[in-house]
TrEMBL record:
Decomposes hydrogen peroxide into water and oxygen; serves to protect cells from the toxic effects of hydrogen peroxide. The lineage of its organism: Bacteria, Bacillati, Actinomycetota, Actinomycetes, Kitasatosporales. It comes from Streptomyces mobaraensis. This is Catalase. Its cofactor is heme. The active site is at H73, N146.
Length: 692
């Protein structure tokens, strides 16, 4: 790669990239190997010899290839990119990477699910991790967030209990990648502080369409600090440029089988295609003197600051533009840590954050096998590193000279950066602390239901329906009636209607409603208000067979591709089909290798012969039926409507009466293909029609 085009991190990584594989095979010691296919043996059919050092080395290395997976967030995918501020934030923070508009800082981001092991499916109902490592000139800053702005618990000391409860059950390691089981709901029903987060987990936020279409949140209240030591509370928000979009539950479950790598593949492929995912970073700023202006505690990670109360101020953008070259070396070995902060960013006394500041370093020590993991290429800062840490497993550095401080023999180096601080020197925020040593939870942390209700009240009707269905699904998988009842009882403090609907699905009596349930709403929480614009990178399937009207396909494709969509022609076999006019129409995918759940929209061109073939093909019929059921836009031309009939779509949809408002577009010949394609595109921009 052209060094001029490489950012500081990429240039650094270049030094660690192994030479191209055009060379002769060698051992670890660089000795050339003549044959790696046959072990050294005594006689043609004789026993293998111990002296075959190449064989032993090869197998031994292989035997040790695995490292422990992350105890949570084991399944993930990552990419490199950059962050650049829109304007200087030096009024609030002395962080160098936020000091100047357009100053690019290299980043590595890892997205993840939480519950499942490394090999679990991407589209399970779960929280998604959204961890960003900024390789700033003043050292690494890690913003280790999630795609939901709150958490299940308030104090990190509950984390082992929580994770034990949500992970696979200890006796049989079931279920993989799911929270729908007894121990999780047992714990949550007894720990009502989880209720707000449960509302998010039961919402569509827990089944994102793509990593590219989910928000990210720092969750905790952090602190910006200026050069002169002034603090401001800050909450971080990532907002995807493509809008916030989710799957529907039935679809998510099918994808888990059809393409367990669905989110990982989407991230990889969009970067390879040059469609770089982008997020805007926003901050909610609260002056220190306003710390107690809220009816919740800023230090409580089960609470948001409603955006209507403190607006999110956009401060910069992040673009991911480079895939890793080796999953293990980069995505698996990357080590995030909430305590990796740079001058200008500091902590608060949020007890969840305080515990995390211990946990992340600790977990890397076991996961990455010792204290030198920050020397791994992906983890190295681009800032210079000088200290007296020495030795340990996997030490890569030859340190000449002294290894203590103070010293005179080493010229006094590495020296203190200066007790007076100064640019680029980290100084802890001088917060005044005074208190007794007590194991208590503050009274200001005791309201567990108001913001759960705020979330519920803010949802659109279809979002509420999905939440009810999710609770019914999850609790329906719980065998303990006692746990079900307790959980439904908790929901009555969120909303009586919600609790009654969930109870009904479980065959339980509705619990007595709580008369004091709050009615406030925050429109910023609904996905209906987070749609984004346009159809870039949306995937559209065109169902074809011999006799398809290839002219319509070309015209519609032209229109859709021009707006950035990806259009793929599917037929029963790979290769090509013969269009109605005898021309060849290339097939992009054989239908048996794909499914409607892997597309955002479906187009059925006309052509009597082709539609007859498709209407008799269960795969094609299912394609249309499923896409409709999952709320996806459909466009049909001419005889294509017959496929809608074969898929048993409602008659008014097939006849086109209420179709456009349902996101189904039938080109009956009066409108041009281009016009129908444009209307179809506008529908795709809305993503789904969940009120069908
Ligand atoms: Fe984590 N978390 N966490 N977490 N977390 C880990 O660190 C932990 C929490 C988050 O892609 C572990 O390297 C404690 C909140 C992400 O590599 C571990 C507590 C949020 C990732 C750990 C929390 C997160 C992790 C496991 C309760 C959102 C994946 C492996 C106080 C703000 C990072 C590892 C990656 C990973 C501990 C709660 C986000 C064990 C003790 C809240 C995105 O250290």
């Amino acid at each position: 790669m052209d060094p001029a085009a490489q950012d500081a991190k990429d240039q650094q990584l270049e030094r660690f990239r192994a030479a191209p594989a055009h060379n002769a095979l060698t051992t670890d010691q660089g000795v050339r190997v003549d044959d790696t296919d046959n072990a050294l043996r005594a006689g043609r059919r004789g026993p293998t010899l111990l002296e075959d050092f190449h064989n032993r080395e090869k197998i031994t290395h292989f035997d040790h290839e695995r490292i422990p997976e992350r105890v949570v967030h084991a399944r993930g995918a990552g990419a490199y990119g950059y962050f650049e501020p829109y304007q200087s934030l030096s009024e609030y923070t002395c962080a160098d990477f936020l000091a100047e508009a357009g100053r690019r800082t290299p980043v590595f981001v890892r997205f993840s699910t939480v519950q499942g092991p490394r090999g679990s499916a991407d589209t399970v109902r779960d929280v998604r991790g959204f961890a960003t490592k900024f390789y700033t000139r003043e050292g690494n800053y890690d913003l280790v967030g999630n795609n939901m702005p709150v958490f299940f618990i308030q104090d990190a000391i509950k984390f082992p209990d929580f994770v034990h409860a949500v992970k696979m059950e200890p006796h049989n390691e079931i279920p993989t990648g799911a929270s729908a089981h007894d121990t999780f709901w047992d714990f949550c029903s007894l720990q009502p502080e989880s209720t707000h987060m449960l509302m998010w987990l039961m919402s569509d936020r827990a089944i994102p369409r793509s990593y590219r279409t989910m928000q990210g949140f720092g969750v905790h209240t952090f602190r910006f600090v200026t050069a002169d030591g002034r603090g401001t509370f800050v909450k971080f928000h990532w907002k995807p440029k493509l809008g916030v979009h989710s799957l529907v539950w039935d679809e998510a479950q099918i994808i888990a089988g059809r393409d367990p790598d669905f989110n990982r593949r989407d991230l990889w492929e969009s970067i390879e295609a040059g469609e770089y995912p982008e997020w805007e970073l926003g901050v909610q700023l609260v002056p220190e003197e306003n710390e107690f202006d809220f009816d919740f505690d800023l230090l409580d990670a089960t609470k948001i600051i409603p955006e209507e109360q403190v607006p999110v101020r956009p401060i910069g953008r992040m673009v991911l533009n480079r895939n890793p070259q080796n999953f293990f070396a980069e995505t698996e070995q990357v080590a995030f840590h909430t305590a990796n902060v740079v001058p200008g960013i500091d902590f608060t006394n949020d007890p969840l954050l305080q515990g995390r500041n211990f946990s992340y370093l600790d977990t890397q020590l076991i996961r990455l096998g010792g204290p030198n993991f920050s020397q791994l290429p992906v983890n190295r800062p681009v800032a210079d590193v000088h200290h007296n840490h020495r030795d340990g497993f996997g030490q890569q550095v030859i340190h000449p000279g002294t290894n203590y401080f103070p010293n005179s023999l080493g010229g006094g180096c590495p020296a203190h950066a200066g007790s007076g601080g100064g640019p680029g020197v980290f100084r802890h925020y001088a917060e005044r602390v005074d208190g007794e040593k007590i194991r208590v939870r503050s009274e200001s942390f005791q309201d567990h239901y108001s913001q759960a209700a705020l979330f519920w009240n803010s949802m659109a009707d279809w979002e509420k329906r999905h939440i009810v269905e999710a609770f019914r699904f999850e609790l329906g998988k719980v065998m303990s009636v006692e746990v079900r009842e307790r959980m439904v009882g908790n929901l009555a403090h969120v909303n009586g209607g919600l609790a009654a609907l969930v109870a009904d699905g479980l065959g339980l009596p509705a619990p007595a409603p709580d008369a004091n349930v709050p009615t406030a709403a925050s429109p910023a929480l609904s996905q209906e208000n987070l749609m984004g614009e346009g159809i870039r990178t949306r995937k559209i399937a065109v169902l074809a067979a011999d006799g398809t009207d290839a002219g319509q396909v070309a015209a519609a494709r032209g229109r859709l591709v021009a707006q950035g969509a990806v259009v793929e022609v599917l037929a029963a076999r790979d290769g090509s089909v013969q269009g109605a006019g005898g021309e060849a129409l290339d097939v992009d995918r054989a239908m048996p290798t794909m499914a409607s759940v892997l597309y955002d929209a479906v187009l059925v061109p006309g052509g009597a012969q082709a539609v007859s073939v498709l209407a008799a093909d269960p795969a094609a019929v299912r394609f249309v039926e499923e896409a409709y059921r999952h709320g996806k836009p459909l466009a049909v031309f001419g005889e294509g409507t017959r496929l809608l009939t074969a898929a048993r779509l409602p008659e008014d949809v097939v006849l086109g009466e209420s179709a456009p408002s349902y996101g189904v577009f039938a080109g009956d010949g009066t409108a041009s293909v281009e016009d129908v394609a444009d209307a179809f595109a506008a529908a795709i921009a809305l993503h789904r029609f969940p009120r069908r």
